[in-house]
Input
Amino acid sequence: MSSDNKKWFSLNLNRKKKESSGTCGCGKTSGGCGSYSEHPQMTDEEFAEAAINASIGEERTKDGFDQVFDVKMDRRSAFKKLTASLLIGAGAVSTSCSVISGDESKEKAQIDWEEQFKGNYKLMDDDEKKGTVERLMRSYELRTGKNISMSSKNAEDDVLFGYAFNISKCQGYMDCVNACVEENNQDRNSQMQYIRIHEMKDGKGFNFNEADDNYYHEVPAEGHFYMGTQCFHCDNPPCVEVCPVQATWREDDGLVVVDYDWCVGCRYCMAACPYDGRRFNWSKPEVPETEINKNQHYLGNRMRKKGVVEKCTFCVQRSRAGKNPACVEACPTGARIFGNLLDPNSTIRWVLENKKVFRLKEDLGTEPKFWYFMD
Amino acid sequence: MMNRKNYIYILCCTCLFVLFSCRHGEGEYHGVTDRIEAESKNYHGTSISSEKYLEGIKTIEITEGEHTFLIPERKNQITSYACTECHSKPLTQMQGKDAKNAHWDIKLVHANKNTMNCITCHNPDNMDNLTSLTGNNIDFNNSYNLCNQCHTKQFKDWKGGAHGKRLAGWAPPRASMTCVNCHNPHKPHFESKWPERFNTETVKERE
Ligand code: SF4
Ligand code: SF4
Output
Protein backbone atom coordinates (compact mmCIF):
# COMPACT_ATOMS: atom_id res chain seq x y z
CA MET A 1 0.00 0.00 0.00
CA SER A 2 1.53 3.25 -0.96
CA SER A 3 0.53 6.30 0.96
CA ASP A 4 1.25 8.67 -1.87
CA ASN A 5 -1.90 8.41 -3.86
CA LYS A 6 -4.86 8.05 -1.56
CA LYS A 7 -8.16 9.78 -1.18
CA TRP A 8 -7.86 9.72 2.61
CA PHE A 9 -5.20 10.56 5.07
CA SER A 10 -3.05 7.80 6.56
CA LEU A 11 -1.47 7.76 9.97
CA ASN A 12 1.34 5.51 8.85
CA LEU A 13 2.02 4.38 12.38
CA ASN A 14 3.72 1.20 11.34
CA ARG A 15 5.50 2.38 8.30
CA LYS A 16 9.21 2.72 8.56
CA LYS A 17 9.87 5.77 6.59
CA LYS A 18 13.21 7.48 6.81
CA GLU A 19 13.16 11.15 6.35
CA SER A 20 15.76 13.66 7.29
CA SER A 21 15.08 14.75 10.81
CA GLY A 22 14.18 18.34 11.26
CA THR A 23 11.84 18.32 8.29
CA CYS A 24 8.40 17.10 9.14
CA GLY A 25 5.72 15.91 6.74
CA CYS A 26 4.14 19.23 6.19
CA GLY A 27 7.26 20.48 4.54
CA LYS A 28 8.21 23.17 6.98
CA THR A 29 11.57 23.05 8.56
CA SER A 30 10.65 24.84 11.73
CA GLY A 31 7.87 25.34 14.21
CA GLY A 32 4.71 25.94 12.19
CA CYS A 33 2.97 22.63 11.89
CA GLY A 34 4.19 20.79 14.87
CA SER A 35 3.01 20.36 18.34
CA TYR A 36 5.20 17.33 18.62
CA SER A 37 7.79 19.27 20.53
CA GLU A 38 5.17 20.10 23.14
CA HIS A 39 5.05 16.47 24.25
CA PRO A 40 8.64 15.49 24.49
CA GLN A 41 8.02 13.28 27.51
CA MET A 42 5.56 10.94 25.75
CA THR A 43 6.69 8.06 23.62
CA ASP A 44 5.29 7.97 20.12
CA GLU A 45 3.17 5.03 20.99
CA GLU A 46 1.51 6.65 23.97
CA PHE A 47 0.98 9.76 22.02
CA ALA A 48 -0.75 8.04 19.17
CA GLU A 49 -3.04 6.13 21.52
CA ALA A 50 -3.86 9.25 23.50
CA ALA A 51 -4.50 11.34 20.46
CA ILE A 52 -6.79 8.77 18.89
CA ASN A 53 -8.65 8.35 22.13
CA ALA A 54 -9.10 12.04 22.47
CA SER A 55 -10.52 12.50 19.04
CA ILE A 56 -12.33 9.34 17.98
CA GLY A 57 -11.95 7.24 21.08
CA GLU A 58 -15.61 6.84 21.87
CA GLU A 59 -16.60 6.32 18.30
CA ARG A 60 -14.36 3.34 18.04
CA THR A 61 -16.70 1.33 20.20
CA LYS A 62 -19.87 2.73 18.74
CA ASP A 63 -21.63 2.00 15.51
CA GLY A 64 -22.80 4.59 13.04
CA PHE A 65 -26.13 5.22 14.67
CA ASP A 66 -24.74 5.89 18.13
CA GLN A 67 -22.15 8.14 16.69
CA VAL A 68 -24.76 10.33 15.17
CA PHE A 69 -27.35 10.45 17.90
CA ASP A 70 -25.44 9.77 21.05
CA VAL A 71 -23.09 12.72 21.10
CA LYS A 72 -23.11 14.94 24.13
CA MET A 73 -21.14 17.89 22.93
CA ASP A 74 -20.96 21.32 24.41
CA ARG A 75 -18.75 24.08 23.17
CA ARG A 76 -15.93 23.11 25.43
CA SER A 77 -15.79 19.49 24.43
CA ALA A 78 -16.20 20.54 20.84
CA PHE A 79 -13.14 22.72 21.19
CA LYS A 80 -11.33 19.95 22.98
CA LYS A 81 -12.12 17.57 20.17
CA LEU A 82 -11.06 20.06 17.58
CA THR A 83 -7.74 20.56 19.30
CA ALA A 84 -7.36 16.84 19.69
CA SER A 85 -7.91 16.21 16.02
CA LEU A 86 -5.41 18.89 15.18
CA LEU A 87 -3.00 17.20 17.52
CA ILE A 88 -3.59 13.86 15.95
CA GLY A 89 -2.92 15.31 12.54
CA ALA A 90 0.27 16.86 13.77
CA GLY A 91 1.16 13.67 15.58
CA ALA A 92 0.63 11.61 12.49
CA VAL A 93 2.93 13.83 10.56
CA SER A 94 5.61 13.65 13.16
CA THR A 95 5.27 9.93 13.80
CA SER A 96 5.70 9.30 10.14
CA CYS A 97 9.07 10.91 10.53
CA SER A 98 10.08 8.48 13.24
CA VAL A 99 10.50 4.76 13.50
CA ILE A 100 8.21 2.62 15.65
CA SER A 101 7.96 -1.14 15.67
CA GLY A 102 4.53 -2.68 15.01
CA ASP A 103 2.17 -3.98 17.63
CA GLU A 104 -1.42 -5.16 17.49
CA SER A 105 -3.23 -2.33 19.18
CA LYS A 106 -1.43 0.15 17.09
CA GLU A 107 -2.31 -1.75 13.96
CA LYS A 108 -5.91 -1.76 15.07
CA ALA A 109 -5.83 1.97 15.61
CA GLN A 110 -4.24 2.41 12.23
CA ILE A 111 -6.94 0.32 10.58
CA ASP A 112 -9.72 2.12 12.40
CA TRP A 113 -8.25 5.42 11.39
CA GLU A 114 -7.96 4.54 7.74
CA GLU A 115 -11.43 2.99 7.72
CA GLN A 116 -12.85 6.07 9.39
CA PHE A 117 -11.55 8.34 6.68
CA LYS A 118 -11.77 6.16 3.62
CA GLY A 119 -13.77 7.34 0.63
CA ASN A 120 -16.91 6.09 -1.05
CA TYR A 121 -16.42 2.58 -2.45
CA LYS A 122 -18.07 3.69 -5.66
CA LEU A 123 -15.23 6.11 -6.33
CA MET A 124 -12.34 3.86 -5.31
CA ASP A 125 -9.95 2.39 -7.83
CA ASP A 126 -9.06 -1.27 -7.67
CA ASP A 127 -6.10 -0.81 -5.32
CA GLU A 128 -8.15 1.20 -2.90
CA LYS A 129 -10.91 -1.40 -2.97
CA LYS A 130 -8.39 -4.10 -2.24
CA GLY A 131 -6.96 -1.98 0.53
CA THR A 132 -10.22 -1.52 2.37
CA VAL A 133 -11.15 -5.17 1.97
CA GLU A 134 -7.79 -6.22 3.37
CA ARG A 135 -8.17 -3.84 6.29
CA LEU A 136 -11.61 -5.21 7.08
CA MET A 137 -10.36 -8.80 6.99
CA ARG A 138 -7.37 -7.95 9.16
CA SER A 139 -9.52 -6.02 11.59
CA TYR A 140 -11.87 -9.01 11.92
CA GLU A 141 -8.89 -11.20 12.59
CA LEU A 142 -7.54 -8.83 15.23
CA ARG A 143 -10.88 -8.57 16.96
CA THR A 144 -11.99 -12.21 16.87
CA GLY A 145 -8.91 -14.23 16.05
CA LYS A 146 -10.76 -15.77 13.12
CA ASN A 147 -10.31 -15.37 9.41
CA ILE A 148 -12.88 -14.32 6.84
CA SER A 149 -12.46 -13.98 3.13
CA MET A 150 -13.82 -10.82 1.59
CA SER A 151 -13.86 -10.09 -2.10
CA SER A 152 -13.89 -6.81 -3.96
CA LYS A 153 -14.55 -8.41 -7.33
CA ASN A 154 -15.81 -5.92 -9.88
CA ALA A 155 -18.57 -6.37 -12.40
CA GLU A 156 -17.53 -8.49 -15.36
CA ASP A 157 -17.88 -7.29 -18.95
CA ASP A 158 -20.79 -8.65 -20.97
CA VAL A 159 -22.79 -9.56 -17.89
CA LEU A 160 -26.18 -8.15 -16.90
CA PHE A 161 -27.92 -10.11 -14.21
CA GLY A 162 -31.61 -10.89 -14.41
CA TYR A 163 -34.12 -12.99 -12.54
CA ALA A 164 -37.34 -14.77 -13.38
CA PHE A 165 -39.91 -16.08 -10.93
CA ASN A 166 -42.44 -18.76 -11.81
CA ILE A 167 -45.67 -18.01 -9.99
CA SER A 168 -47.22 -21.36 -10.81
CA LYS A 169 -44.31 -23.22 -9.23
CA CYS A 170 -43.88 -21.40 -5.92
CA GLN A 171 -45.57 -23.33 -3.11
CA GLY A 172 -44.70 -21.02 -0.21
CA TYR A 173 -42.22 -23.43 1.37
CA MET A 174 -39.91 -20.57 2.44
CA ASP A 175 -36.66 -22.48 1.89
CA CYS A 176 -35.42 -19.48 -0.06
CA VAL A 177 -35.84 -17.14 2.89
CA ASN A 178 -33.91 -19.44 5.20
CA ALA A 179 -31.10 -19.75 2.69
CA CYS A 180 -31.00 -15.99 2.18
CA VAL A 181 -30.81 -15.21 5.89
CA GLU A 182 -27.94 -17.63 6.37
CA GLU A 183 -26.05 -16.69 3.23
CA ASN A 184 -26.26 -12.97 3.80
CA ASN A 185 -25.47 -12.83 7.53
CA GLN A 186 -28.77 -11.17 8.30
CA ASP A 187 -29.72 -10.27 11.83
CA ARG A 188 -31.40 -13.25 13.45
CA ASN A 189 -33.76 -11.30 15.70
CA SER A 190 -35.30 -8.60 13.56
CA GLN A 191 -37.61 -9.28 10.66
CA MET A 192 -34.88 -8.36 8.26
CA GLN A 193 -35.57 -10.93 5.51
CA TYR A 194 -34.90 -9.56 2.03
CA ILE A 195 -37.44 -11.93 0.48
CA ARG A 196 -41.11 -11.74 1.23
CA ILE A 197 -43.50 -14.46 0.16
CA HIS A 198 -47.05 -13.25 -0.35
CA GLU A 199 -49.94 -15.68 -0.13
CA MET A 200 -52.66 -14.52 -2.49
CA LYS A 201 -56.17 -15.69 -3.16
CA ASP A 202 -56.80 -17.23 -6.54
CA GLY A 203 -58.86 -15.06 -8.84
CA LYS A 204 -58.11 -11.76 -7.18
CA GLY A 205 -55.03 -10.87 -9.15
CA PHE A 206 -52.00 -9.43 -7.46
CA ASN A 207 -53.66 -7.79 -4.57
CA PHE A 208 -50.87 -6.96 -2.18
CA ASN A 209 -53.25 -5.28 0.25
CA GLU A 210 -55.16 -8.47 0.81
CA ALA A 211 -52.19 -10.80 0.58
CA ASP A 212 -51.18 -12.74 3.68
CA ASP A 213 -47.51 -12.06 4.37
CA ASN A 214 -47.47 -13.75 7.75
CA TYR A 215 -48.91 -17.17 7.04
CA TYR A 216 -47.87 -20.17 9.04
CA HIS A 217 -49.86 -23.24 8.07
CA GLU A 218 -49.40 -26.19 5.79
CA VAL A 219 -48.62 -25.01 2.27
CA PRO A 220 -49.73 -24.74 -0.46
CA ALA A 221 -53.10 -23.70 0.91
CA GLU A 222 -56.16 -24.59 -1.15
CA GLY A 223 -57.23 -21.79 -3.48
CA HIS A 224 -54.10 -19.71 -3.02
CA PHE A 225 -50.99 -18.94 -4.96
CA TYR A 226 -47.65 -17.63 -3.77
CA MET A 227 -45.34 -14.98 -5.08
CA GLY A 228 -42.05 -13.68 -3.79
CA THR A 229 -40.74 -10.14 -3.85
CA GLN A 230 -37.31 -8.78 -3.08
CA CYS A 231 -35.14 -6.02 -4.54
CA PHE A 232 -35.72 -6.14 -8.29
CA HIS A 233 -32.44 -4.46 -9.23
CA CYS A 234 -34.16 -1.86 -11.36
CA ASP A 235 -32.26 -0.70 -14.39
CA ASN A 236 -33.51 2.79 -13.67
CA PRO A 237 -33.52 2.65 -9.88
CA PRO A 238 -35.31 5.49 -8.08
CA CYS A 239 -33.61 4.51 -4.82
CA VAL A 240 -30.24 5.46 -6.30
CA GLU A 241 -31.53 8.79 -7.52
CA VAL A 242 -32.59 10.00 -4.08
CA CYS A 243 -29.56 9.02 -2.03
CA PRO A 244 -28.06 12.29 -0.83
CA VAL A 245 -24.57 10.83 -0.35
CA GLN A 246 -24.44 8.37 -3.27
CA ALA A 247 -24.07 5.44 -0.94
CA THR A 248 -26.13 3.29 -3.27
CA TRP A 249 -25.65 2.85 -6.99
CA ARG A 250 -26.10 0.56 -9.97
CA GLU A 251 -23.05 -1.50 -10.88
CA ASP A 252 -22.18 -2.30 -14.49
CA ASP A 253 -23.60 -5.82 -14.25
CA GLY A 254 -26.91 -4.33 -13.17
CA LEU A 255 -26.68 -5.01 -9.44
CA VAL A 256 -27.92 -2.20 -7.25
CA VAL A 257 -25.62 -2.14 -4.23
CA VAL A 258 -25.06 -0.21 -1.00
CA ASP A 259 -21.79 0.86 0.60
CA TYR A 260 -22.71 0.23 4.24
CA ASP A 261 -19.83 2.42 5.38
CA TRP A 262 -20.99 5.38 3.36
CA CYS A 263 -24.71 5.12 4.07
CA VAL A 264 -25.88 7.71 6.58
CA GLY A 265 -29.13 5.96 7.34
CA CYS A 266 -31.50 8.65 6.11
CA ARG A 267 -33.85 6.03 4.63
CA TYR A 268 -34.72 8.19 1.61
CA CYS A 269 -34.08 5.16 -0.58
CA MET A 270 -36.62 3.11 1.33
CA ALA A 271 -39.22 5.76 0.68
CA ALA A 272 -38.28 5.93 -2.98
CA CYS A 273 -38.41 2.20 -3.67
CA PRO A 274 -41.83 1.29 -5.04
CA TYR A 275 -41.30 -2.41 -4.30
CA ASP A 276 -40.46 -2.47 -0.58
CA GLY A 277 -37.06 -3.81 -1.53
CA ARG A 278 -34.96 -2.27 1.23
CA ARG A 279 -34.48 -3.03 4.92
CA PHE A 280 -33.19 -0.84 7.71
CA ASN A 281 -31.09 -1.97 10.66
CA TRP A 282 -33.06 -0.61 13.60
CA SER A 283 -30.91 -2.56 16.01
CA LYS A 284 -27.37 -3.82 15.94
CA PRO A 285 -27.47 -6.85 13.64
CA GLU A 286 -26.23 -9.95 15.41
CA VAL A 287 -25.21 -13.32 14.01
CA PRO A 288 -23.87 -16.13 16.19
CA GLU A 289 -20.17 -16.55 15.48
CA THR A 290 -20.60 -20.15 14.36
CA GLU A 291 -23.26 -19.23 11.83
CA ILE A 292 -21.36 -16.42 10.12
CA ASN A 293 -20.88 -16.96 6.41
CA LYS A 294 -17.22 -16.21 5.96
CA ASN A 295 -17.31 -16.02 2.19
CA GLN A 296 -18.09 -12.35 1.84
CA HIS A 297 -18.11 -9.46 -0.57
CA TYR A 298 -17.67 -5.81 0.32
CA LEU A 299 -20.93 -4.91 -1.41
CA GLY A 300 -22.74 -8.02 -0.25
CA ASN A 301 -22.96 -10.04 2.90
CA ARG A 302 -20.21 -8.53 5.04
CA MET A 303 -21.24 -7.59 8.53
CA ARG A 304 -23.41 -4.50 8.73
CA LYS A 305 -23.90 -2.06 11.54
CA LYS A 306 -26.85 -0.44 13.17
CA GLY A 307 -28.45 2.42 11.30
CA VAL A 308 -27.68 1.50 7.71
CA VAL A 309 -29.82 0.22 4.89
CA GLU A 310 -29.35 -3.14 3.27
CA LYS A 311 -31.14 -5.30 0.71
CA CYS A 312 -30.90 -8.22 -1.67
CA THR A 313 -27.77 -8.01 -3.84
CA PHE A 314 -28.54 -11.10 -5.94
CA CYS A 315 -25.87 -12.57 -3.60
CA VAL A 316 -23.09 -10.59 -5.25
CA GLN A 317 -20.49 -12.77 -3.49
CA ARG A 318 -21.97 -15.79 -5.27
CA SER A 319 -23.25 -14.41 -8.57
CA ARG A 320 -19.99 -12.73 -9.54
CA ALA A 321 -18.29 -16.06 -8.95
CA GLY A 322 -20.64 -17.85 -11.33
CA LYS A 323 -22.97 -19.38 -8.75
CA ASN A 324 -26.68 -18.87 -8.47
CA PRO A 325 -28.02 -16.73 -5.63
CA ALA A 326 -28.77 -18.69 -2.47
CA CYS A 327 -32.55 -18.47 -2.98
CA VAL A 328 -32.31 -19.93 -6.48
CA GLU A 329 -30.22 -22.81 -5.23
CA ALA A 330 -32.46 -23.46 -2.24
CA CYS A 331 -35.83 -23.43 -3.99
CA PRO A 332 -37.08 -27.02 -4.11
CA THR A 333 -39.62 -26.33 -6.86
CA GLY A 334 -37.41 -24.61 -9.43
CA ALA A 335 -39.54 -21.47 -9.36
CA ARG A 336 -36.50 -19.22 -9.45
CA ILE A 337 -34.33 -18.70 -12.52
CA PHE A 338 -31.25 -16.53 -12.65
CA GLY A 339 -28.73 -15.71 -15.32
CA ASN A 340 -26.96 -13.40 -17.72
CA LEU A 341 -29.37 -11.32 -19.78
CA LEU A 342 -26.71 -10.49 -22.36
CA ASP A 343 -25.97 -14.11 -23.21
CA PRO A 344 -28.39 -15.03 -26.03
CA ASN A 345 -28.07 -18.72 -25.13
CA SER A 346 -28.78 -18.34 -21.43
CA THR A 347 -31.83 -19.93 -19.88
CA ILE A 348 -33.06 -16.61 -18.53
CA ARG A 349 -33.15 -15.26 -22.08
CA TRP A 350 -35.14 -18.28 -23.22
CA VAL A 351 -37.66 -17.61 -20.48
CA LEU A 352 -37.99 -13.95 -21.43
CA GLU A 353 -38.41 -14.79 -25.09
CA ASN A 354 -40.68 -17.83 -24.83
CA LYS A 355 -42.85 -17.37 -21.76
CA LYS A 356 -45.38 -14.67 -21.12
CA VAL A 357 -43.45 -12.54 -18.69
CA PHE A 358 -44.39 -9.38 -16.85
CA ARG A 359 -42.97 -7.14 -14.17
CA LEU A 360 -44.55 -5.30 -11.27
CA LYS A 361 -45.56 -1.65 -11.71
CA GLU A 362 -44.07 -1.53 -15.18
CA ASP A 363 -45.66 1.85 -15.79
CA LEU A 364 -43.33 3.51 -13.29
CA GLY A 365 -40.42 3.18 -15.71
CA THR A 366 -38.14 1.70 -13.06
CA GLU A 367 -37.29 -1.16 -15.42
CA PRO A 368 -36.87 -3.93 -12.86
CA LYS A 369 -34.72 -6.86 -13.95
CA PHE A 370 -37.04 -9.30 -12.21
CA TRP A 371 -39.74 -10.94 -14.30
CA TYR A 372 -42.70 -13.08 -13.31
CA PHE A 373 -44.15 -15.80 -15.46
CA MET A 374 -46.49 -18.76 -15.35
CA ASP A 375 -46.26 -22.27 -16.71
CA MET B 1 -17.71 39.40 -40.95
CA MET B 2 -19.67 39.65 -37.71
CA ASN B 3 -22.57 37.86 -39.30
CA ARG B 4 -20.45 34.94 -40.30
CA LYS B 5 -19.00 34.58 -36.86
CA ASN B 6 -22.44 34.59 -35.38
CA TYR B 7 -23.60 32.06 -37.87
CA ILE B 8 -20.77 29.68 -37.03
CA TYR B 9 -21.41 30.20 -33.34
CA ILE B 10 -25.07 29.32 -33.68
CA LEU B 11 -24.24 26.34 -35.84
CA CYS B 12 -21.83 25.02 -33.21
CA CYS B 13 -24.38 25.52 -30.47
CA THR B 14 -27.03 23.65 -32.41
CA CYS B 15 -24.66 20.79 -33.07
CA LEU B 16 -23.76 20.55 -29.42
CA PHE B 17 -27.38 20.79 -28.39
CA VAL B 18 -28.38 18.01 -30.75
CA LEU B 19 -25.50 15.89 -29.53
CA PHE B 20 -26.43 16.22 -25.90
CA SER B 21 -30.16 16.12 -26.20
CA CYS B 22 -29.96 12.64 -27.67
CA ARG B 23 -28.53 11.29 -24.45
CA HIS B 24 -30.72 11.58 -21.43
CA GLY B 25 -28.97 10.29 -18.36
CA GLU B 26 -28.58 6.52 -18.22
CA GLY B 27 -31.07 6.40 -21.02
CA GLU B 28 -29.15 5.50 -24.06
CA TYR B 29 -31.88 2.89 -24.14
CA HIS B 30 -35.56 3.30 -23.65
CA GLY B 31 -35.87 0.33 -21.42
CA VAL B 32 -33.99 -2.64 -20.18
CA THR B 33 -35.24 -4.81 -23.05
CA ASP B 34 -33.70 -2.38 -25.52
CA ARG B 35 -30.49 -2.43 -23.55
CA ILE B 36 -30.42 -6.22 -23.54
CA GLU B 37 -31.06 -6.39 -27.25
CA ALA B 38 -28.42 -3.82 -28.11
CA GLU B 39 -25.71 -4.98 -25.75
CA SER B 40 -26.06 -8.66 -26.46
CA LYS B 41 -25.53 -8.11 -30.20
CA ASN B 42 -21.79 -8.29 -29.74
CA TYR B 43 -21.75 -10.67 -26.82
CA HIS B 44 -18.34 -12.29 -26.54
CA GLY B 45 -18.90 -14.58 -23.60
CA THR B 46 -17.56 -14.06 -20.11
CA SER B 47 -14.62 -15.42 -18.21
CA ILE B 48 -16.98 -16.54 -15.45
CA SER B 49 -17.56 -20.28 -15.57
CA SER B 50 -19.35 -22.73 -13.35
CA GLU B 51 -17.11 -25.58 -14.38
CA LYS B 52 -15.47 -25.82 -10.97
CA TYR B 53 -18.83 -26.37 -9.31
CA LEU B 54 -19.37 -29.40 -11.51
CA GLU B 55 -16.25 -31.14 -10.33
CA GLY B 56 -17.00 -34.52 -8.87
CA ILE B 57 -20.42 -34.71 -10.53
CA LYS B 58 -20.68 -37.21 -13.36
CA THR B 59 -22.53 -35.62 -16.24
CA ILE B 60 -23.48 -36.52 -19.77
CA GLU B 61 -24.06 -34.10 -22.62
CA ILE B 62 -27.37 -34.21 -24.42
CA THR B 63 -28.67 -32.38 -27.47
CA GLU B 64 -32.40 -31.85 -27.78
CA GLY B 65 -33.51 -29.65 -30.65
CA GLU B 66 -31.43 -26.49 -30.55
CA HIS B 67 -30.40 -26.99 -26.94
CA THR B 68 -27.21 -28.75 -25.89
CA PHE B 69 -26.46 -29.08 -22.20
CA LEU B 70 -25.27 -31.39 -19.44
CA ILE B 71 -27.42 -33.55 -17.22
CA PRO B 72 -26.25 -35.71 -14.33
CA GLU B 73 -25.50 -39.34 -15.01
CA ARG B 74 -28.27 -41.49 -13.63
CA LYS B 75 -27.15 -45.10 -13.64
CA ASN B 76 -24.41 -44.62 -11.04
CA GLN B 77 -26.97 -43.09 -8.70
CA ILE B 78 -29.36 -46.03 -8.78
CA THR B 79 -28.60 -48.37 -5.92
CA SER B 80 -27.73 -51.79 -7.31
CA TYR B 81 -27.83 -50.99 -10.99
CA ALA B 82 -27.65 -53.10 -13.19
CA CYS B 83 -31.08 -54.51 -12.45
CA THR B 84 -30.16 -57.85 -13.98
CA GLU B 85 -27.81 -58.46 -11.09
CA CYS B 86 -30.95 -59.53 -9.21
CA HIS B 87 -33.40 -59.93 -12.05
CA SER B 88 -31.71 -63.00 -13.45
CA LYS B 89 -34.92 -65.00 -13.74
CA PRO B 90 -38.28 -64.09 -15.25
CA LEU B 91 -40.51 -62.09 -12.88
CA THR B 92 -43.00 -64.92 -12.32
CA GLN B 93 -40.30 -67.04 -10.77
CA MET B 94 -39.08 -64.23 -8.52
CA GLN B 95 -42.45 -63.54 -6.97
CA GLY B 96 -43.72 -65.87 -4.32
CA LYS B 97 -43.42 -66.74 -0.68
CA ASP B 98 -39.80 -67.84 -0.50
CA ALA B 99 -38.41 -65.05 -2.64
CA LYS B 100 -36.60 -62.13 -1.02
CA ASN B 101 -38.69 -59.00 -0.63
CA ALA B 102 -37.62 -56.12 -2.88
CA HIS B 103 -39.11 -52.82 -4.00
CA TRP B 104 -41.61 -53.11 -1.15
CA ASP B 105 -41.39 -49.35 -0.66
CA ILE B 106 -42.55 -48.51 -4.16
CA LYS B 107 -46.18 -47.63 -4.48
CA LEU B 108 -47.26 -46.23 -7.80
CA VAL B 109 -49.01 -42.87 -7.41
CA HIS B 110 -48.73 -41.63 -10.96
CA ALA B 111 -51.70 -41.09 -13.25
CA ASN B 112 -54.49 -43.65 -12.76
CA LYS B 113 -54.54 -47.42 -13.04
CA ASN B 114 -56.08 -47.38 -16.51
CA THR B 115 -53.29 -45.24 -17.83
CA MET B 116 -50.22 -46.58 -16.13
CA ASN B 117 -48.79 -49.58 -14.42
CA CYS B 118 -45.26 -50.94 -14.00
CA ILE B 119 -44.87 -52.14 -17.56
CA THR B 120 -45.76 -48.76 -19.03
CA CYS B 121 -42.16 -47.84 -18.33
CA HIS B 122 -40.39 -51.10 -17.43
CA ASN B 123 -39.85 -54.04 -19.72
CA PRO B 124 -40.04 -57.32 -17.78
CA ASP B 125 -37.85 -58.96 -20.42
CA ASN B 126 -35.20 -56.26 -20.36
CA MET B 127 -34.85 -54.85 -16.88
CA ASP B 128 -31.69 -52.83 -17.56
CA ASN B 129 -33.48 -50.38 -19.81
CA LEU B 130 -36.69 -48.43 -19.69
CA THR B 131 -39.24 -48.91 -22.40
CA SER B 132 -41.16 -46.40 -24.46
CA LEU B 133 -44.91 -46.63 -25.13
CA THR B 134 -44.13 -48.33 -28.41
CA GLY B 135 -41.68 -50.78 -26.89
CA ASN B 136 -38.39 -49.16 -27.76
CA ASN B 137 -35.52 -49.17 -25.30
CA ILE B 138 -34.78 -46.00 -23.36
CA ASP B 139 -31.53 -45.74 -21.46
CA PHE B 140 -31.82 -44.95 -17.75
CA ASN B 141 -29.47 -42.02 -18.30
CA ASN B 142 -31.94 -40.46 -20.73
CA SER B 143 -35.02 -41.16 -18.68
CA TYR B 144 -36.40 -37.72 -19.57
CA ASN B 145 -37.32 -39.29 -22.90
CA LEU B 146 -39.72 -41.52 -21.04
CA CYS B 147 -41.41 -38.63 -19.26
CA ASN B 148 -41.68 -36.44 -22.33
CA GLN B 149 -43.95 -38.93 -24.05
CA CYS B 150 -46.82 -37.46 -22.04
CA HIS B 151 -45.41 -34.31 -20.44
CA THR B 152 -44.63 -32.46 -23.63
CA LYS B 153 -45.21 -28.97 -22.29
CA GLN B 154 -42.93 -29.51 -19.32
CA PHE B 155 -40.33 -31.02 -21.63
CA LYS B 156 -40.34 -27.96 -23.82
CA ASP B 157 -39.92 -25.66 -20.83
CA TRP B 158 -37.23 -27.88 -19.36
CA LYS B 159 -35.19 -27.83 -22.57
CA GLY B 160 -35.34 -24.05 -22.64
CA GLY B 161 -34.62 -23.75 -18.95
CA ALA B 162 -37.98 -22.50 -17.63
CA HIS B 163 -38.79 -25.75 -15.83
CA GLY B 164 -36.42 -27.37 -13.37
CA LYS B 165 -33.22 -26.37 -11.71
CA ARG B 166 -29.63 -25.74 -12.64
CA LEU B 167 -27.04 -28.13 -11.30
CA ALA B 168 -24.14 -25.72 -10.80
CA GLY B 169 -24.18 -21.95 -11.20
CA TRP B 170 -25.80 -19.67 -13.75
CA ALA B 171 -22.57 -19.42 -15.75
CA PRO B 172 -21.84 -21.65 -18.71
CA PRO B 173 -21.52 -24.57 -19.25
CA ARG B 174 -25.18 -25.17 -18.62
CA ALA B 175 -25.87 -28.21 -16.47
CA SER B 176 -29.50 -28.90 -15.61
CA MET B 177 -31.09 -31.41 -13.33
CA THR B 178 -33.27 -33.91 -15.06
CA CYS B 179 -36.85 -34.95 -14.22
CA VAL B 180 -35.96 -37.66 -11.71
CA ASN B 181 -33.63 -35.40 -9.73
CA CYS B 182 -36.65 -33.57 -8.35
CA HIS B 183 -39.59 -35.90 -9.00
CA ASN B 184 -39.87 -39.44 -7.76
CA PRO B 185 -41.04 -41.17 -10.95
CA HIS B 186 -43.34 -43.48 -8.99
CA LYS B 187 -44.87 -40.58 -7.06
CA PRO B 188 -44.05 -37.42 -8.94
CA HIS B 189 -46.12 -34.77 -7.16
CA PHE B 190 -44.77 -32.41 -4.49
CA GLU B 191 -46.12 -33.01 -1.00
CA SER B 192 -47.72 -30.20 0.94
CA LYS B 193 -45.81 -29.41 4.11
CA TRP B 194 -45.21 -26.79 6.76
CA PRO B 195 -43.11 -23.84 5.65
CA GLU B 196 -39.47 -23.86 6.70
CA ARG B 197 -39.97 -20.82 8.90
CA PHE B 198 -42.36 -18.08 9.87
CA ASN B 199 -42.99 -15.62 7.13
CA THR B 200 -41.87 -12.05 7.57
CA GLU B 201 -43.85 -9.95 9.92
CA THR B 202 -43.85 -6.68 8.10
CA VAL B 203 -43.22 -3.82 10.46
CA LYS B 204 -46.16 -1.50 10.53
CA GLU B 205 -44.29 1.73 10.22
CA ARG B 206 -46.73 4.21 8.87
CA GLU B 207 -49.61 3.72 11.27
S1 SF4 C 1 -36.48 -2.74 -6.24
FE1 SF4 C 1 -36.33 -0.90 -4.94
S2 SF4 C 1 -34.36 -1.12 -3.90
FE2 SF4 C 1 -34.30 -2.53 -5.63
S3 SF4 C 1 -33.37 -1.32 -7.30
FE3 SF4 C 1 -35.60 -1.09 -7.52
S4 SF4 C 1 -36.07 0.80 -6.42
FE4 SF4 C 1 -34.01 0.15 -5.73
S1 SF4 D 1 -30.40 5.28 3.79
FE1 SF4 D 1 -28.24 5.14 3.07
S2 SF4 D 1 -28.39 4.29 0.99
FE2 SF4 D 1 -30.46 4.99 1.55
S3 SF4 D 1 -30.63 7.08 0.72
FE3 SF4 D 1 -29.91 7.29 2.87
S4 SF4 D 1 -27.65 7.28 2.75
FE4 SF4 D 1 -28.42 6.53 0.75
